[in-house]
Amino acid sequence: MRVVNSMPILVWSAEPNGMVDFLSENWLAYTGMNAKAALGAGWIAVIHPDDIAPSLKRWKDLMSTGTAQSAEVEVRFRRSDGQYRWFLVRACALRDQSGAIRSWYGTNIDIHDRKLVEDEIRRSEASLGAAQRIGNVGSFSWSRQQEAFQCSEEFYRILDLELGTPVTLQRILDRVHPDGRFRVMSLRDKPITTTDEHENRLIMADGSEKVVLVKISRTDSADGTFEYHGAIADITARRRGEDALAQARADLAAVARAASMGEMAAAIAHEVSQPLLGIMANAELSIRKLSRKPTPISEATQAIGRIIRDANRASEIVRRLRDLYSDREPTHEAFDLNEALIEVLELSRFDLEQEGITVDRKLSSQMGQTAGDRVQIQQVVLNLLRNAIESIASNPGSRRSISIHTYKGEDRISLTLEDSGAGFQPEQSRKLFDSFFTTKPNGMGMGLSVSRSIIEAHQGILWARNNDRGGATFGFDLPAVARPKTSRPSS
To answer: How would CATH label the architecture of 329-486?
Structure first.
């Protein structure tokens, strides 16, 4: 008895009918019960309430069979401080020569810490499994000394394999698309030294395809063996989304090209209309001059010269607009913005005089130069000037004046054009530079759109605002370049 009481486990014995007749000192000390209260069926008081019914059923089933030799059950016992801990209860029958049970002997072994670890492992595995299901990621491990892979549940699902069946390299190869089997075979025949990452295609039993991303690394052991650990992710939906996005981008690019061609056609029609009107006016003037007697040859020659000038300008506009919309670099050269502006005002003198509009010019004497396409920038100025003229003409009773200023900053040069016309509505400010938006009854809505494209292609900014006294101001700025120094002639 002294040996039993000195054992670190809880020992007990019971009569054939299950009534306990002995409890070790350790059992009594652990539970805090006295022998009188615990013997018989009193020991049930220290069992966790949730475990009483299943443990008693197990105990009764064991005694009712009459043939069972031993049994085990996990039960929570209350310690003397009130805490419940898990125990593994083992019961073994002692029989006489006839086989009848004379008594039961049992032990209770504390497995609480092991139980907590097992529960934590189960929770971790369940959490990992849930994460793998959510992310469509499966895991596996394999060594060349093993025939079968160790695979997670999600691995089976991705490869559409029956859960629990042995996963061999051949079964995996049966799922891999023929184009990717060499890659899988090479991993078997040539051990990897770094993490391998690749995409592959799988063929399911129903003939459908999956795209998977596979990552594999190697773990070396002290005995010279190594093991592969890997993950496989189902990226079929992502790949289909990327393919659909790529197709949508291609379709959008085609639409954009078609829209760009439409814009170019409209822009050419808009910009060329101005020199064509000049050609028609000078052609009519030439006919009148040539029909007079005596014929003023010099005046007719001047008119014909202007026809040639406007025709060349129209041709140049078409070429430059075509370059602009074909994403080719514009012709870059240094030029004086003041000089370019004066040329535009000269070209528009007839329209200004016809509408009775005066131009107030305040041009910076320290203007310097900018680099870019002179004709395109002149076309922007001409568009802004034509818009100002038409705005003033549509606003009877207004001051018929336009103010043009140029400024020189530290590294930028600017031009502003202020008119006394009708201006624009505040809600229209965001659409002024959009293609095909116009505030004019017969406008095409291309002038400001083309102008913005030209200025932005020159790393500049085109802007607009309403004036406090009526009318609107349009302006742009461009990068300034140093004017080249001229060498003095030698004396």
So the answer is: 2-Layer Sandwich (3.30)
